[in-house]
Design brief:
This protein has 450 residues and is mainly beta. It has one domain: Porin, CATH 2.40.160.10. Helices cover 10% and strands 50% of the residues. The strands form 3 sheets. A 16-stranded antiparallel barrel has the order 2-3-4-5-6-7-8-10-11-12-13-18-19-20-21-22. A hairpin with an 8-residue loop joins strand 21 and strand 22. The protein is globular.
Length: 450
């Protein structure tokens, strides 16, 4: 029995040795090394290393669906409008010996229907034509942010450094330059410490900043042919900004060339100054804030009226319009020229807005705000034509924010606007000519940020 057991064990050992030798003789195939995506903590949450590089990337974006109702002025005009925006943001950052190297690609695709049309496309049409006539009102628009930063240097297309640099909840947008409309920029930002920065920038004026020239040939008001000439000098910006725990503030100044198309007139320079502050109010409730902003401009109406004439609607009649409707006047131009005498007159504009936001709970908030804007002209300019029409607009708005999930919110808003002028606005179908116009508008936005 012992002999049989010994023979069996010896046989098993021999078979195991043969099997091991045979397995060693077979070709082996190692699994390829797996390169996992690693979190990049240097730049905050959401950044990951691009595999095989020392560059960190963050992917984000949003979908923004908005519907609006605006008071019509004739039976032929749209009352309802819709806008859907898709946005994809890529933010790539690398630390280098020259400072942070950052590249941002941020295209926004907008589809508009009915009352909603494309203000940016029309402004670009204005620039291309060199006139105050509207460009093509496209229902589909691509608005692209794309820029490179190295240390304090910024080159590319992004919101103007003249703008307030902090957001408002008002869906149409308050008085002042709208950072949603990008311009091509080269800028340098110096950090002064304690959250304070100073930026100097040169910005292209053709995309959004030219509001046309109104010319007359005689004192009787016959129209001449002088318009904006070619773009020769970029807008220059100097901006001081403060970001601290209590909130944010900015102070900025901007120049603007008015190059007339006729050799009869030399180029002139307009300008604008702005200041704003947004104060956090955690002593009332977390997330509460108050915003104040003011701006003054000469020969540079878009610095004040960018938003008031911004979200253009199909109710516009190629004149001076605001979010609530339209009123027909030629006075939105940056300057008036008298071809007969060679005199030029720059428009003077100023305005401001205030907004308060209160959170009842982390998911429910309300906001209320008001804005005022005034366009004025020298008496000599007004004597040339009733189209040179000093005008003022004030708006009040009330809205709510419901955000039950992080990155998702629903924002309804009601907006009332009142416009008044020295001379009567032109009749508009069912509406008679009048010096005062009132208008109501309602919007609701559903937004998902990621």
């Amino acid at each position: 029995m012992k002999l049989t057991k010994s023979l069996l064990l010896a046989s098993a050992a021999g078979l195991a040795a043969v099997a091991t030798a045979s397995a060693a003789d077979l070709p082996s195939k190692k699994a390829a090394p797996v390169e996992y995506v690693k979190v990049c903590p240097a730049f905050g949450p959401g950044f990951y290393y691009i595999p095989g590089s020392d560059t960190c990337l963050k992917v984000g974006g949003n979908v923004w669906v908005e519907g609006m109702w605006s008071q019509p002025y004739t039976k032929a005009q749209d009352t309802l409008g819709y806008r859907t925006q898709m946005r994809i943001t890529l933010d790539a950052r690398t630390n280098t010996e020259y400072g942070l190297l950052r590249t941002v690609v941020d295209p926004r695709f907008n589809k508009r229907n009915g009352l909603e049309q494309s203000p940016s496309q029309q402004r670009e049409g204005n620039a291309a034509q060199g006139t105050n006539a509207d460009g093509t009102a496209k229902q589909f628009q691509v608005n692209t942010t794309a820029y490179i930063q190295l240390g304090g240097l910024t080159v590319g297309r992004l919101g103007s450094f003249f703008g307030p640099q902090f957001s408002s909840n008002d869906l149409p947008g308050p008085v002042g330059v709208d950072a949603r409309d990008e311009v091509t920029t080269v800028a340098y930002t110096a950090s002064l410490g304690n959250g304070i920065t100073l930026t100097g920038a040169l910005e292209d004026s053709t995309d959004a900043n030219r509001d046309g020239v109104y010319s007359v040939a005689t004192a009787g008001g016959a129209t001449g042919s002088v318009t904006y000439g070619g773009n020769r000098v970029p807008d220059a910006v100097l901006a001081l900004k403060i970001d601290q725990a209590w909130g944010s503030a900015n102070l900025a100044a901007m120049s603007h060339e008015i190059n007339y198309s006729s050799n009869q007139f030399s180029s002139e320079y307009g300008y604008a100054v702005t200041g704003g502050v947004k104060v956090n109010l955690p002593m009332i409730a977390a997330g509460d804030s108050i915003l104040l902003n003011g701006v003054y401009a000469s020969g540079f109406n878009q610095a004040v009226w960018r938003n008031n004439t911004g979200d253009k609607t199909s109710n516009n009649n190629n004149g001076f319009q605001y979010n609530g409707g339209w009123y027909n006047s030629g006075s939105i131009n940056d300057a008036v020229v008298n071809v007969a005498t060679g005199q030029t007159y720059q428009a003077k504009s100023y305005g401001g807005n205030a907004e308060f936001t209160h959170y009842f709970t982390p998911a429910v908030a309300a906001f209320a705000g008001a804005s005022y804007a005034k366009l004025s002209w020298d008496s000599a300019a007004q004597s040339l034509s009733t189209a040179i029409n000093p005008t003022s607009v004030y708006t009040v708005y009330l809205g709510a924010i419901w955000s039950p999930i992080k990155g998702f919110k629903v924002v309804p808003e009601v907006n009332y606007a009142h416009a008044s002028a020295k001379y009567q606005f032109a009749a508009s179908g069912a509406e008679p000519a009048a010096k005062n116009i009132d208008s109501w508008q309602g919007r609701i936005q559903v937004r998902r940020d990621f």
